[in-house]
Design goal:
Strands 1-20-19-18 form a four-stranded antiparallel sheet. A hairpin with a 4-residue loop joins strand 2 and strand 3. Helix content is 1%, strand content 58%.
Length: 308
Amino acid sequence: MIKVITNKLIYKNSDKKFTHSQFPVSIRLKDKVRIFFSKRDKNNISQPFFIDLDPSNLSRIIYEQKKPILKFGKPGMFDDAGVMPTSIIKHKKLYYMYYTGWTTRKNIPYSNNIGLAISKNCRNFKKYLNIPLFNPAKKEPYYSATLQVIKKGIFYGAYLSCIGWKKVSNYYDPIYDIKMSTSKDLINWKRDGRSIIKLKKKQGGICPGDFFKINKKYFLIYCYRSAENFRTSTKDSYKLGLAFTQNFKTWKRFDKLKIITKKNSWNSDMQCYPSVLIEGKTINVFYNGNGFGKSGIGLAQITGIDKL
């Protein structure tokens, strides 16, 4: 049985220039836990920052980066309207940070693509290319975003795959599920267009949050929402879920990963964009609450996932 033993808000943006602290991405360094995330301004433009936490007390912030760690792309590039880190992995002394690039469109509100930045010290990052890693394909004519990576021999990358747009009240919202890709070098990725986590009835989006491994099982934590009213309805907004596999082909899905909430609290309406850090037997889940990160970054400590 899954049990939440801790659940609290650990960071809320205090800079009046920004409205959101969105999509936490955690990594354990030698003497700290680093949380990358994006601050969104009033024009819905996202920029990447990070905070460092005390490993012995993950509620204690020991450093906050005040300047963005990556710049926007030039006008017309895939990341000219926002840069949002979504995962990080260390390989051969280098840190590979995958991010979602944002650009605006005329007929739809925006489009996303997957970018890559690389660092030697997990602090100073440089974009690998000025073009996205994934391009539209015959089976995937829309955008891709939010790549999550884990190694099992080769590298497996779960990503958000847009499968269309739905017009509701004169506004277009994307419809997306999760697909899988593979790579030998973290740069060149193969895709077959097959969905591993599909939409259920009335659902409109499933966003991968993080990979982690317990014993011989590989887990993917994600968030999912309804196709309509997800911005205003607690019932239809993002909630957390899990899927697990041993072979990366067949996945068992476990929705309704219930997080303790209090009425009218920072996470009572929404829980989204989870990132997992395992310390000993404790599974730490950093995530956003209400308003897609407007209320800040929280921490839930969970046990019992290994019993699934």
